[in-house]
Amino acid sequence: MAVVAKIAPSMLSSDFANLASEAERMLRFGADWLHMDIMALCPQPDNRSSSHREAYLDCHLMVTNPLDYVEPLAKAGASGFTFHVEVAKDYWQDLVHQIKVKGMRPGVALKPGTPVEEVEGENPVEMVLVMTVEPGFGGQKFMPETMDKVRALRKKYPSLDIEVDGGLGPSTIDMAASAGANCIVAGSSVFGAKEPANVISILRKSVRDAQQSS
Ligand SMILES: O=C(CO)[C@H](O)[C@H](O)COP(=O)(O)O
Ligand SMILES: [Fe+2]
């Protein structure tokens, strides 16, 4: 069975002064997940409004000490916990275990220069995030050369969630979708659009079309 398309607007591009209503707006527009880029700020348990308590929070940890975030993020209601393998090379499998124990879905992120071999191991992750820009901020240019990694992962793991993050929008989605990505993070292309719902549906359609023609 094909993996399911998940469209995840990146809240990094949202209006931070109105985070709750921005989240609600995206869910209304058809977002499957809310992508939360965590650098220094960490959501506290009481910060979730009741209206989006059920939303899937796809947390992308861009921190050097992901282990310190397992407990607080679990308490805050994180759904997915994706950390960068580059900062946890010696203990990433143990970290995956701890994330699972806390009831979150573990994911491992790869910077553009990190090979897929870094995430092969005995304690399987539920998602691999292939960064399609250097991590750090929104609005950067998509790097097509990262698609080789998406293709290699999809070939080896037909039912793994493969996420792409950085520079995704209507003009780049077909490259990612045809390479085999099914979880699509999009910040500026969604939040900067006149009609975000249209962009979300274009992204989803591209993933579904690519799956049907593969
Ligand atoms: O992890 C990220 C940057 O490193 C983000 O998810 C970023 O917000 C993506 O934004 P855009 O879609 O505008 O490239
Ligand atoms: Fe991200």
UniProtKB/TrEMBL annotation:
One of its GO terms (biological process) is carbohydrate metabolic process. It is an enzyme of class 5 (isomerase). Catalyzes the reversible epimerization of D-ribulose 5-phosphate to D-xylulose 5-phosphate. Its cofactor is Mn(2+); Zn(2+); Fe(2+). This is ribulose-phosphate 3-epimerase. It comes from Musa balbisiana (Banana). Belongs to the ribulose-phosphate 3-epimerase family. The keyword Isomerase applies. It holds the Pfam family Ribul_P_3_epim. The keyword Metal-binding applies. Its EC number is 5.1.3.1. It catalyses: D-ribulose 5-phosphate = D-xylulose 5-phosphate. SUPFAM superfamilies: Ribulose-phoshate binding barrel. GO terms for molecular function: D-ribulose-phosphate 3-epimerase activity; metal ion binding. Keywords: Carbohydrate metabolism, Iron, Isomerase, Manganese, Metal-binding, Zinc. Homodimer. PROSITE patterns: RIBUL_P_3_EPIMER_2.
